[in-house]
Amino acid sequence: MRLTEARRDLYRRLAREQGYKSRAAFKLIEANERYQFIKEGGKVVDFGSAPGGWLQVASALVGPGGLVVGVDLQAVKLKEKNVVFLKSDVNDPNLPAQVAKALGGRADVILSDLSPEVSGVWELDQTIQVDLTMKVLDISLALLRPGGAAFCKLFEGERAQEVRDEFRLRFKVVRVIKPAASRNASSELYYYCEGIRQPTP
Hints:
Layout: H1 3-18, H2 25-35, E1 43-47, H3 53-62, E2 67-72, E3 83-87, H4 95-103, E4 107-112, H5 122-143, E5 144-155, H6 160-170, E6 171-177, E7 188-196
Parallel strand pairs: 1-2, 1-4, 2-3, 4-5
Antiparallel strand pairs: 5-7, 6-7
């Protein structure tokens, strides 16, 4: 067994043992241990939340005084009382208002682990994933409180620089991370962005 396969199996096993819906939970755990952006009592929105691993992690981190809103086209059912799920498309123009209503205000953190249905044509998949991430960035302007943070997945490829430029334009601090639970061969990287800049009136 190759090292990458062994590591992937390790995180799958840990996810089962610790009750997480997916090994992706450990990507968010690692990032939050490093940057501590999800805090007790906070409000978090998770785009692309199925099967629910990130929702579980965020729910535990914000605690009973916080709130997590998940958004995905696939239904997610969790027992956590501080989690609200919206079955919706990130491209729905009504989504920002629906999320804001569920939150009862603005979010402290936006999470995005969005990926397209993989077609096998890399250029197409990367383009769609970039478009999804850019949409989340647009929504973040409407949903994040001043100074709020985001943690987003991005497929590396031809259009990746376009998104990195947008991260740096919209946030004061941008950091890149390749979590240990990510496969070495995967093109995915995660960007931690802090201090959203509010648009000039």
